[in-house]
Amino acid sequence: MENxxxxxxxxxxxxxxxxxxxxxxxxxxxxxxxxxxxxxxAEQPKGIKASEWFEREFPAVVxxxxxxxxxxxxxxxxxxxxxFNAILLTSLVGHRVVFDRVLQLTLDDLYLSIGEDHRVAxxxxxxxxxxxxxxxxxxxxxxxxxxxxxxxxxxxxxxTLSEPLVPLYxxxxxxxxxxxxxxxxxxxxxxxxxxxxxLANDRLDLDVQxxxxxxxxxxxxxxxxxxxxxxxxxxxxxxxxxxYVRRETCCLKYKIEGKEKCSTxxxxxxxxQENIMRMNMLGLFQ
Length: 286
Description:
Layout lengths: L1 H8 L13 H11 L6 E3 L5 E2 H7 L1 H11 L4 H27 L1 E3 L7 E4 L5 E7 L4 E3 L7 E3 L3 H16 L3 H6 L4 H19 L4 E2 L7 H15 L7 E8 L2 E8 L22 H15 L2
Parallel strand pairs: 1-5, 6-7
Antiparallel strand pairs: 2-4, 3-6, 4-5, 8-10, 9-10
């Protein structure tokens, strides 16, 4: 997988001392590259512990969110979940791909702040959080022996962060399949956000087959058949390529009045979806 990840590292401006960076410095690099990577690190994180918040506040907040967009819970809650996932899981995988590090996170390590729109506004983590790494170049590093061992740790962390939430979402009428489809989609977004600009084919040929194979193995270790829930793909146009993630589960957004199917939705025929992505890519040149 090192060759695959090196492709994405060439897209990010990395300093020479990359092996000795703190997690806060890593996150700043990801955020400068693409603001979508927005997990926050602080010496004293602000907010409410996620483990406590989900037990006490989650049902009322998602109901308020559903009411605010005039939607039923089964359709509103997956949309609410997307923001939480995007802040947390996309950055988590970004650290693995770019820096060969896996943050040792649990729900007790996450501090949530909720915005006026009833969705997650920020997630903060201690800047002293320990992490698994191939090299022990930092005082918070716990060295593992191989890329495979690092991926095993990543799968364990994703499971630890997500599995306790499944029954809570189920009470809000969100099926486990939709829950996991959303969570693992956010993980795959690390690839499309690292390669967020169209790339010239003669500069780099992104290996989406290797990326899909890696995520399939990883997600199958997270939850049964997890590797079947999303696919990393790309489209080409006029000598350029653009990555995207095709969902194999629908988030049900189109059930909300005024909303359409996501461009990545499996309800689109593959050929139609590729044309949508080409048009999106064309828009980036204008």
